[in-house]
Fold each of these.
Amino acid sequence: MSRKRGNSALELTKHGIHDIHGIHVASRRRALQALAAGACFLIARPATATPDELTAALRETFGERSITRGRVKLEIPRVAENGSVVPVTVSVDSPMTQQDYVSGIHLFAEKNHLPRILEMQLGPYNGKAVVSTRVRMATSQQLTAVAVLSDGSLWSAAADIEVVTSECGL
Amino acid sequence: MSRMGAARVRMPPSAKRGEVVEIRTLVQHPMESGFRLDNTGKEIARHIIESFDCTYNGREIFRAKLHPAVSTNPFFTFYAVASESGEFVFTWKDDQGGVATATQSLVVNT
């Protein structure tokens, strides 16, 4: 009985598709959907960063300077059984002379809670621009290495990694 | 104050002038990210090494700023041009005042 009344309340104003409160039905549905999507975003956000946060971290570090793909080689395993210990080697194609050298190498993880992993400072006294370390990857994602050269130019490489398990809490 | 453990450095004891030598370093440290929870659901406080540097006869040749995404027991491999005999000093500092150091000497033959 009440269900019928509910239906008829809608039908009464059917030509306008408004409910008994005079609110446009389709608009209300869209508003509710938007609200639900927003709630999901709030819950998901603390778990992992987004590629947007990577972009923000890059901008914060390098400003509006352009970053070119190339000259950097990023070696990581394609699949990591344990995301807590992922070996990484970054090599930059540079003569490492007083005039032309790599002054910095930065590592970023797009989906870690904090995209920044590590910043290293180098110079001509290193002889070659090759560094290795071990990092934590929260989930399957892309790792990005950016090299800063002595002339101020920025070069990068990215590599995908599939992470099976990770207990690092990142 | 600190759970900063032993630091180990591996590099050749001698090299020819101009040779590029490999330096491998490892330090014991939990690198607690601050994002993990204990059994009671309480956050485990962040405790990480924030900086690592290496000097060669007093001159800085490598520096790293570490974030929580560096693995437990931070490990680094990097290189240096053997320019003169001398001492390499390695220093790790964490966010709770803990410091670890290691020194290694290199004999450079002409």
Amino acid sequence: MKRALFAAIFALGVLAAPAARAQSGGVTLIKNATILTVTHGTIEHGSILIRNGKIAAVGKDLKAPDGATVIDASGQYVMPGIIDCHSHIAVDGDVNEGSISVSSMVNIADVLNPEDIDIYRDLAGGVTTANILHGSANAIGGQTIVIKLRWGKPASDLPFEGALPGIKFALGENPKRSNFTPPPGVPVRYPRTRMGVEETIREAFVEAKEYKTKWDDYNRPKAAGEQNLIPPRRDEKLEPLVEVLEGKRYVHAHCYVADEILMLLRVAKEFGFKVRTFQHVLEGYKVAEEIAKAGAGASTFSDWWAYKMEAYDAIPYNAALMTDRGVVVSINSDSGEEARHLNQEAAKSMHWGGLSYNDALKLVTLNPAIQLGIDKRVGSIDVGKDADLVIYNHDPLSVYAVAQKTIIDGQVYFDRERDIAQRAELEKEKKALLEKEKKSAAPAERKDEKKPNGANRPPKAVSF
Amino acid sequence: MPQRMMRRCVGLFAGLGAACALVVLLFAPATRAQGGEPRSFAIKGARIVPVSGPTIEHGTVVVVNGLIQAVGADVAIPPEAWVIDGKGLTVYPGLIDAMTDLGIVSAEAGPPQGGAGAGRGARRQIVPSEIAMGPEDRPGTTPWEIAANEIKPDDKRIETWRSAGFTATLSSPKGGIFPGQGSVIDLAGERAGEMVVKSPATLDIAFTPVGGFWSFPGSLMGVVAYVRQVFEDTKWYEQAEPVYAAHTKGLERPVYDRTERTIARALANKELVLIPGNNDIQIRRALRLIQEWNLRAAIYGAQQGYLTVAEMAAKKIPVLVNLRWPEAEKDADPDADVSLRELQFRDRAPSSPAALAKAGVKFAFYSGGINSPRDILKNAKKAIDAGLAQDVALRAFTMDAAEILGVDDRLGSIEPGKIANLVVADGDLFNEKTKIKNVFVDGQRFEIHEPERPKEPPKGNMTGKWTLNYTTPEGQESSTLDVTMGPDGTLSGTFTGRRGTSAISSAWLSGNTFHFTISITMGPAPTDVNFSGTFDGNSLKGNISVGGFSTEFTGTRPGGGMMAAAEN
């Protein structure tokens, strides 16, 4: 029954209006809630005061200031908004520029689609922030961006302010096109081996370094006042790689098997950049110490594997084992469906591997915030942080938990009650529009023509 | 001169050409009958809508040597002018279709689409003709193609458009990301050179991935990245070229690249850059990129402009509105779910022009692939019904279009000195019952006759997709006819055969007989192919004739046709 209701939300969510009653800059008090702060334990019957989109106070005996909106969360749970470190939602067009092995000139930020229904569905699953990645068809893929799921706002309002942009790398079967055969007439794309993937990445960084040198060689005499210099060309492919070398852009590397994880760490060390996160990283448990030592994060699945050769050696203990070895671990969705129950995905690590309740919560809150460099802003319920919160009717780590309200910057972007209340109205509007269209599309009927009445209506396919 | 006249009439023969011969032979005053077409006209006693000024209820327009010489309530008529009695007629500036490919006949028809002629197309479908491995390979990039150089005056659509009141268009090369540069052309002339008004006028850009999965760019973000790189390269060329030119000794020479040189010249010429943006997401993206790339640009599409008018007004970006409003697919599964968002879009798209006007955004209209030019005005009427003031709608087809395209010094209004492009109608232009009587292009008069057709109401409804089967000297062939029938039996739609897709014209169903014509390129020039026959509710049967050749054909609905029962 609950399941059916939940499904209905997703079916109808398309129609729901965005944060219609949002109170930007207003004051809201959530009271009587079980508050899962992540950083300083659980507060029973606690309150959260939100002012100007930030958490102004957290505690037991907070009073609602005059004019504040009060949300009574009796019997409910509040946790930090879920952060999905690997998402492909909200993209207009293809998520892969799959034609070439280094596609770093393309940028997800150019094609954000704020009307993708998966944003709303993610909100209904408690997600408030997502790292929108390019696909994994290339050794070096496109530029990536962290967004807040501000449903109803234009694309320009989605980017997470101040979050460092990233770039997608990919190792293994996808970039070497193991599972794709080009049609006749199309040359086979290099690389076709894991060795070739490594060589492609190295080659790109050799180019990037040369490119940087070229600009330095131009800028130096120019600064000294020399005239008649022809500048180098701007190269949209190499600019983001220079940013990686300068630490201005994070590397999120799609990977599966242990040896290529070590390979990328070696290449990064050689060229002097950091891998910010390993994504999927299903064999991370085999090289957890090396990952921890390099200061890289790991963003993995709870128990999703064996969908291809390189995903066979996976175990559900991966998240727990890497956590034990000191890696900052998150659980991601990689899918608009999985993103709707990341709370449950996190909970599985308590069963598989025995993570503590709080460490399990961290997998989808504080840890992905650290991985994305936004932990000063989000990831826990602390005074001064963004009021990005989700209210559940049950303990979020239980299978009965259903998100009731999802709040970003203090504004309610998903409200289950409101969603349900709006459905009939939206259905009505839809029906009316369909009727109107039918009427205007039908050729004008002549008066003398008899219309078949309802009972003897001909089959649908025949009517005009 | 008589020879010149003959050529013109032969060239236009179908329908209209005959009319122009009649005009000259029967009605031209004797003093000029020997000399050929008159070069001066006076339309006297007509209602005149100059657009640039208030309507003159009873006035005269004088046209001399292709230009408007005078307009007003009381102007002198030169003695040699051929006087046309304007009683009951309204004179408008000639209409402008602000974005088309009129006159541009692609050398090679596109690949056959689906079903018909199976096997032929299968091989070609996914492999792009050239594999591009990055921006440096310049995929889908031919900015040096200038429409004026490609115009074929015998494109049958030129006459069709003109007969509906359109006297000028922006014509642009098509295909690719940088398809080329558009030219403003007048819709009459024996040679392309006579037709060109301004060229090049625009630098066209489309955000269409051209590479599929196998060639760059295969994604929307790839296209945006590519266009960005091209503008970066252009900027580099603008910087590098003068430095090199002044110091050829001692500097490595810049690599020659046709794309960046062409685009640099277009930008220096202040050509209008055309950027696509139809829904709100695309429009906002276009606004952002226009600013980032620092372009003098217009956005084309704009059908969801009703959601973005504020931003558009703030940026003062002109807009070309596509009049081919979104609608349900003709053969859509009636049980398929359609999102509310999509339904709202279809419902509200025609309200965009009114919203743009209210916000003070300058816009022009374009046909956007509408096959029958009469539907252009019909669709503009939908915008008027959705709140657009009629005079603003008229401006969007005339003065505002001319201003956006940078030809308002020559076109767009009835003012002395401007090109004599006029429409003479027997009533209000946006009234469906109004008939266009005369069209002047460059001062040359075309008398418009309604195509003759039987008056009987249609029996049954031909709307839908048809598969036509016939035998030609090349063997068994089958084609697809995709038509929509209006209440009076008028048919519109497309015909897709081996030679690609073309619009049908002179198309109707009257009683149980139907007719339609397509224009295909056979040899050097477009040729009319006529289809006529009978329709029994389920199937078509008839004759195809082209030149001296004729063959029989049959037509069936691929989805099965049980509609006769519903109709009777």
